[in-house]
Amino acid sequence: MRYLYHTQSDLVMLALVDCNNFFASCEIAFDPTLRNKPLVVLSNNDGCVIARSKEAKNLNIPMGAPIFKYESLFKAHGVKKRSSNFTLYGDMSNRIMAILSKEEFPIEIYSIDEAFLDLSSLPKEKLLSYAKTLRKKIYNYSGISVSIGIAPTKTLAKASNCFAKKKETEHVHLITNEQITEHLKHFLIKDIWGIGRAHLAFLTARGLKTAYDLCQKQDDWIKKHLTIQGLRTIKELLGVKSIDSIDRFCPRKGLLRSSSFGKEIEDYKELEKAISYFCSEAALRLRKEKLTCSYLQVFLHTNRFKTPNFSKSLSLALPFPTQSTRVLTGYALTLLKKIYKPQTLYKKAGVAFGDIQTSTSTQQDLFVKESPKEEKLMKAFDEINARYGKKTLHLASEGSSNSWKPKRVLKSPSYTTSWNEILHIKI
After folding, report:
1. Does pTM surpass 0.70?
2. Do 79 and 51 contact (CB within 8 A), yes or no?
């Protein structure tokens, strides 16, 4: 191999805890009748497959599969369907991350179903036994099965997790420094964390198949064709720590909230409700991440599968950075009025926030400033909703009915977040 492993890496061991088929697993955890059966979770309006159980994957049902194209296969194999229930998935994710946070090791949450644990303080001979115990604890407390991959770097931990998922029962795997070379020979380039479709096509066209093949290339070649980020990935594969923190912790560049409607909408008031809802959700996200935005875009689309189709968007540079639901919604509805075309059936709408900055480093205009009362108002707004339930307080423009919302005919109950939908057990 091209690099000598850093002696310091012998002291570093990271574990990636990854929930298996997470959305499908959440559904199965509350409905035992779904166990060992092919299950798919559907996108907004129940149009496409966004998650699959192991049994559904074995039927070669691809991600993003349009439902209407696979109905005959679903009927032939008894495939179960569920509408997406992101409230349930988010709450189950919080529960699993809370379990991991109570462990004695530093944690870095990467996504809704993945987290890194730093196990460097644990003796190497105890790594596998600890991972097995942790996996059993998570399943007993949540009903969710996880895979755990352990290795000296984050990229290798991702690779180790891929090997863990292929194991029938344990779903735990360890890659030590001495085992790296052998693992890279059996690890395909398409599975490398950080290698996208464009780079995969480029590398495959040049006869590279495994991570080992890629790691034989020189630094200059890697940097030229895969950029500096690609070079970091290669070093990580070779056991050299090159990623300190996950990119997602950098301030986001944009924020989008949009949705296809459950039915085509012509009425302006319904569109107004939808845009107000999107602004409310996006503004709340800004406040949670302590960000502000200075750019706003509103867009409308008709059904792209019908002709003639129509789309229109309009943008606005805001006079001052803000995270206020009230302010952002006011500007968004002004843009909506300008792009709305009567006697048109709309299928999708949304808002996009740009020019995002951290609220602590926001540069204010000398002459035009947001009222200091706005921040206090939004703080009170959020505290009331956190205490008494989401949407206890909302803008009047959101309305009380949501006829525009996507269809979720097969949605499971919100077992963990709604008293009215809590699971009942007959004894």
Report:
1. yes
2. no
DSSP 8-state class, residue 150: E
Identity of the residue numbered 181:
T
Domain residue ranges of the chain, discontinuous segments joined by +: 7-20+89-237, 22-86, 255-398
CATH code at 22-86: 3.40.1170.60
CA distances from 9 to 176, 192, 236 (A): 10, 20, 11
Other residues' Cβ atoms within 10 Å of the Cβ of residue 43: 18
Q: Which CATH number fits domain 255-398: 3.40.50.1480, 3.10.28.10, 3.40.50.10380, 3.30.1490.100?
A: 3.30.1490.100
Q: 81-126: per-residue pLDDT in tens?
A: 999 998 899 999 999 999 999 999 999 999 999 999 999 999 999 9
Report the C-alpha gap between 177 and 238 in whole angstroms: 9
Question: In the CATH scheme, what architecture does the domain 7-20+89-237 have?
Answer: 2-Layer Sandwich (3.30)
By C-alpha distance, which of 250, 121, 114 is closest to 193?
A: 114
Residues 6 or more apart whose CB falls under 8 angstroms from that of 132 comprise: 170, 172
Residue with tokens 């939808």: 274
Beta-strand relationship, 172-174 and 146-151? parallel
Spatial strand order of the sheet with 80-83 comes to 49-52, 39-42, 80-83
What's the residue count for the chain?
427
Where b means 16+ CB within 10 Å and e means fewer, 82-119 reads bbbbebbbebbbeebbebbeeeebebebbebbbbbbeb
pLDDT tens string 289-310: 899 999 999 999 998 888 788 8
